[in-house]
Design brief:
- The structure holds three protein chains of three kinds.
- By secondary structure, chain B is mostly beta strands.
- Chain B contains one helix and nine strands, in the order E-E-E-H-E-E-E-E-E-E.
- Chain B is globular.
- Chain C is of the alpha+beta class.
- In chain C, helix 1 runs parallel beside helix 7 and helix 3 packs across helix 10.
- The chains are: A alpha/beta, B mainly beta, C alpha+beta.
- Chains in contact: A-B, A-C, B-C.
- Chains A and B meet through strand 8, helix 4 and strand 9 of A and strand 1, helix 1 and strand 5 of B.
- Strand 9 of chain A pairs antiparallel with strand 1 of chain B.
Amino acid sequence: MKDHYQLLIIGGGPAGLAAATIASSKGVTCALLDEQPAPGGQIYRSIESVPEKRAEKLGTEYLRGKELASAFRACEAEYFPETRVWSLSSQREVGVLHKGKSKIISADQILVASGAMERPVPFPGWTLPGVMQAGAGQILFKSSGIVPSDGVVLAGSGPLLLLLAWQYMNVGVEIKAILDVTPLSNHLLALPKLPRALLAHHYLTKGLIYQRDLKRAGVNTKIGASLLQAEGDDCLDTIRYRHFGREHTIKTDLLLTHFGVIPQIALTQAVGCKHQWDDSQQCWRPEHDEWGSTSIDGIIVAGDGAGINGARSAEHAGRLAGLQALFALGVISQIERDQQSIEDRQWMKDERHIRPFLEAYFAVPQTMLATTNNETIICRCEEITAGQIRKAVESGHQDSNHVKFLTRCGMGACQGRQCSNAVAHIVADSGGQAISEQSHFRGRPPVTPLTLMQLADLNEEESL
Amino acid sequence: MFKQLSNSTVETVEVTLNGQKIHVSQGMTVAAAALTQGLHFTRTTPISNSKRLPFCMMGVCYDCLMVIDGKANQRACVTYIKKGMQIETQQGVGPSLGETE
Amino acid sequence: MKPNVLIIGGGLMGSSIALQLAMRGCNCSVIDKASPGRHASGSNAGGLRQLNRDPAEIPLTVEAAKMWHSIKDLVDSDCDARFSGQLRVAENRSDMKKLEQRANMVKAMGYQHEEIIGKKELYKIVPALSPHCIGGLICRGDGYGRPYHALTAFRHKAESLGVTYHSSTEALNIEQEGEGWHVRTSQKVFNSDILVNCAGAWSGQIAALMNESVPLTPKALMLMVTERLPHFVDPVMGAASRKLSFKQMQNGTLIIGGALVAKLDFEQQKTELDWQQLAKSASTVVDFFPQLSDVRIVRVWAGIEAYMPDNIPVISASQTVKNAYHAFGFSAHGFQLSPIIGRIMSQLILEGKSELPIASFSINRFSQEKK
């Protein structure tokens, strides 16, 4: 690993891979750092090693990653897998942990392609063993062919729920129920956005195919389920929910939930990029222009880490960001950048047609985002409940960061990744500042764990 | 809770999980191995002593912390299995830091 | 008739002063340009340390320690204060000599709180310490608290006695009319009889609005906190000749500090961490406690604090204008002093003199130096 690169790309998902491929073709020194052992990100995880049979069951969307990964493998960019980035400064210095050793490298341009994570939505019992996120189920399936052995209940809202159900169905996993928590009122709210969505009808068609296949297979789907609760002593045993005014229970040892995805913003937060609350996507995201340039000079974002637009968009955004980096480095002219990006920009525009509809249709109900059940644990690490957060707000702490100082909510090992949004929702709901007015939990590096010894390594490096 | 679909092409390696020698597929994460071995929990929390299993499987929730090769607080979902690895369930904040002699 | 007092800066000093004045019947308003505790008061390490203070501060710190030991009587909360001692470790003979000289100096002043301990006692108190150390200087009545909890307790108590707080209220212009003050802020104009400047790192700017200049330097101090660990050390640890400062909190996390300065853009209020300095600090910690090598750092942050050239605060009436007072420049060791600062300042404001000697903290010491 060199001490300096012209372009450094953080993240090996579709955005990062596409950016590295295009940027390195123009002869700039470029490196891609990624936490995983192989290219693909979460969406195309294990794409290079997946056995053919499993890949088929996962669907054609997933196979798209093969092309991206092989183009990246063939390109000139240096690739550092199993490498963690623990800090990023506005001077474009990057703290890196590689082969157990830490070091600080720098770059002229940095692309943060950090991708998305599942939106954490707390509900009673969500910390019980046996309650996991749908993305976790998919990762187990993609990377190791691991699937539920004694049936599964899927609950939440969003396209991934349906996709995972369909993928599981393909390999004969028993799907005990799909509990769709999107309220029926969402359908009405989404209706005006349907005409535009029809411009990207392949997404709608695919959704309908999954639905049809699942229905044919006799999978029990409850639309408009509410008051989801996971119960059990030491592990999940029963799921309780309401549907059309009646309470129901299901026995299961595994519940996979999905409430949409949100950008991973730990790095852009740590470096101090401006962020904004996106009301439609119900999340914070870094502010950026069409090319991915953020409020900090030389820091670019692309893909779902910049705002949720899906895997295909990420690929095009990655190429735009790559071209922007080349332009900023003086390798190509503005005209060249604009011309070479015409197709990608058109693609992105087309891809976006579906988003407003999806976002309205699958919007998670407010009653779940800001749970009114005060016993519910919000901070999984520090085990702080909704009631404790509401109490802090009532005693005058009107902002997420103040609630954090007071309660330790968000101060645990995950650094607030799992609770920051829920805390903001609850603070707003209990009379604190509106969510758009609040400050997100302030970014506190290291973004990924760093031991005292690994930090101390920086000394040796200096003295060498 | 979980099972691995048969895949005869992948080699297995021997690791130790809570004192038991087990064979798991190469390329698996520690968390995936723990789940397929039917572990009921991979850690207990320092605050309420509650049991937890992996939750996100992508390194963001820090709920899958385990003691791996004697080191506490390792994220099992981003740690890949290596031959001879010693994996243990983590109790609370993990093993004592001891005293220097 | 008690005076109306406007306090600029809603941190721990401002809140402590407001509390003491309110207890004595004054009508106080506190304004803060951000929110109380946004900077030093919310982001400091919470050390309750009498050990190794500047001789001028000793009478104050000893009195403050008494107040901390019964802090619940004052603010209805124990502020999570724990008294597990503070300790400075000697690694060699010359360290030990330095500590002994210090202990003798304190004794000669008539104080008993700093105590020399030998190797045996040292390892009885801190068995986990690396075996190379030979003794130390301890203050057994010292400890630590939780800064934001303390601030919240002081503020709530002050509010219960009628003090009003105004957040996002930045002082823009200060005018004296007769004996009173008009302070134009980003929100509205405040009128008062008395003005108190305890704006932390921004105190120099407030003083300038009153035409008083002070050689204040804002600095951003970094702290690291680790994951929760099994309990392994009681006292707050320091070293005689190395930058070491850390403590294990009740919840098991370690807070590591030691005057580590981040890069600061004061105008923009932006701090950028200096990882090389943090790396040195990490090495020092591991030298004293090798078993911490694999412990993970969870958060690092920097808080903006005011430093004076002589590293002791300004606790003083203004030298240029009447009815204005200063309490700032605590140079990263103000937390422990905060309760006594409230008491002294209330005496200074209402009676014109303090129960403890504060001449060393006068604002005119800087102008005198020049002459």
